[in-house]
Amino acid sequence: MTFSLQTFGQLQLLDAKGKSVSFPEKGLLILAYLLTSQEGSEHRAKLAQFLWGDADRPVSLVNLRSIISRIKSRQDELGAEFLRFTDGMISLGQTAIASDLLSLDRKGFEEPVIWLGRLVGLFNRTFIGPVNCQSRDFDAWLLQRKIYHNALLKGLLKETSHSAKTPKEEEIVKNAAILIFHNEPDDPDTLRFLVQLFNAEEEVEYFRKYLEQRKQSLSEGPAPLGTTSNKASAESVVRTKAPEHFSAQGMSITDFPPQSEKTLAKTIPRLALLPPTNTHRDPIVAMVASSLVEDITIAFCALNSLEVIAPHTAVRIGKTSEDKANVYERYDITYVLDTRLSGLKDQDLSLFVQLIYVDNSEIVWAERYMLSTLDLMSRRRDILRQITLFVAGRIESHQVTRLYFERSAAAYHRYLVGRHYLNRLTLPNLRRSRKELKSALQEDANFAPALSSIARTYSKEWLLTARGDLDLLQAAAEYATRAIEARRDSADGYRELGVAKLLMGAIDESVQALEVSETLSPNYADIIADHADTLNHFSRPDLALQKLERAIELNPLTPDSYLWTAAGASYSLGNFEGALGYIDEMVDGDLADRLSAASWAMLGDEKKSRFFVRRALEANPQFDIDKWLTIVPFKEQWQKDIYREGLKKAGF
Questions:
Q1: Are strands 307-308 and 3-6 parallel, antiparallel or unpaired?
Q2: How does 582-602 read in b/e, with b if 16+ C-beta sit within 10 Å?
Q3: Which of 53, 292, 318, 549 has the most crowded Cβ, counting Cβ within 10 A?
């Protein structure tokens, strides 16, 4: 009969059918030890110390004699000789035995990737498993074997990482990397190796290029703005010194008071990525989703501005019944990326991801990714990139903003009051907002959020009054420039400068400024919406609507300003019913009365058109079409013509 010794997972003896065969545990340990030794034999005294330690040698030798007696008896019953005993030695016996230990060696016909896959399958299970052996020699042997296994895996991974050609082979390579990270999460050499490995798969290089793009946009600023009109204010932006020190994420250290190295070290946030804890009816989906989270963990290893909790610990944190707040405090965790699968049917399957700031349970960012079992594998890399970039960007923004606001608490309080009045676009609210925001500047004259918000009050007042008051736009540009000078790593200053430039008619400069703004905050819905507004005036209403779809996705309780821009873009495309549909969704639809009147007129409904004309003229009796069209910037004449036609038909 053929027998085999299983050492990975549960230590046991198996028969030819794979069924467990009873055998003394200490005998199996001796067998495993001898199979890993070069000689295949060992002195009895050495094995007694291996099994029971060296505290009481005579007792250990007595115990060994007892075990030998039991092993001989059991071998006689099985008709096999796995171990041979002499007066002073124990050796491998005459009966050949298979073992997963022997399968660590490469078979001659095997491709390296196949061998790697076989090792990953073995090493994913605990070597030896739970056994009753407490000696120091046993622990040392166990550690030695684990080091050997990891070295074998790492060496083979280096050999095969560039040769994987099929999705299955790429999966084997990735799983081997994950396993190495499990085993050596804090080893700097392992970390460097993994970064090199994933550079081969282009992931880390992708993140680095993206972050470098952000840093370059930040350090250069909207320099091209100085090439067109309004040069004075643009040059004041260009002359502003770029920060001298940036982290890998593009954060400006110079924005904050000097700190000791010890204090700065503490500001590096620690992130725990928790795999989905809920089950799914398809175990493959659940497995792939958990593996995706591990992929993201590896990607984060390349970012020096974050410390990432190893997947093994993260899994245990996710499953623990202990109070999570206590666990997060114990491991000094700053942020948690929580994940959850939802949807029972294939077409409804989604992965919900939310980033939580542990100190106050604030949800910093959340997103839902629609999946299906058919394309889950093919979309993994795209989803990995999105989540990694979004999370890195959100943590960066949250860390910088939190420290900045904590430094100016009084100014921040007045700023929040001022921002409250900006939520509803009426002239009285704009002026109340401006008053509060200027009070914030009395607390901190360089408080960038207040400066950029004041700029917004002026540009919005210009829009609401529709009188073409250039002083309002100049004030907006001035405050936006001051905001950029105060904090060049903040997107809001560039955003407000872009809006002001748009209304001044410098559309090219506006597009450039808003591109910088969106680069700095790629998931800031309000900035995306403003970028869309500029693209509409750039005579690309089609692109504007695409961006607005993204902004609305990120901000589903949609502000009126988004809907107003979407209505204008739809009108420019000749979709007058679509324009009216967006206006109907607005809370204060009367803000768009002129656009409603023009849309109804283009649809041939004179009665409804006249109603909105009367209401618009009540709010602004001085409105004049020709004057308005000279003020409102459009890059192409056709866009002005379609507005003129609709407003004329309406009766303005």
A1: unpaired
A2: bbeebeebebbbbbbbbbbbb
A3: 292
d(C-alpha 633, C-alpha 495), whole Å: 17
Q: What is the mean pLDDT of the chain?
A: 77
pLDDT digits (tens, 9 = 90+) for 520-536: 776 677 888 888 988 99
For residue 627 the two structure tokens come to 């004057």
The dihedral formed by the CA atoms of 51, 54, 55 and 56, expressed in degrees to the nearest 10? 80
DSSP reduced 3-state for 350: strand
Q: Are 138 and 50 in contact (CB under 8 A)?
A: yes
Claim to verify: residue 155 and residue 282 sit in the same structural domain: no
Give yes or no: residues 76 and 183 share one domain: no
What pTM value is reported for the model?
A: 0.46
Q: Kindly report, residue by residue over 289-335, the tens digit of the pLDDT.
A: 666 676 676 666 555 566 777 666 777 787 777 777 888 888 888 88
Distance from C-alpha of 304 to C-alpha of 215, rounded to nearest angstrom: 15
Structure tokens at 334: 């700053």
CA distance 623 to 580: 21
CA-wise closest residue to 613 among 629, 627, 595: 595
Sorting pLDDT into bands at 50, 70 and 90, what band is 215? very low
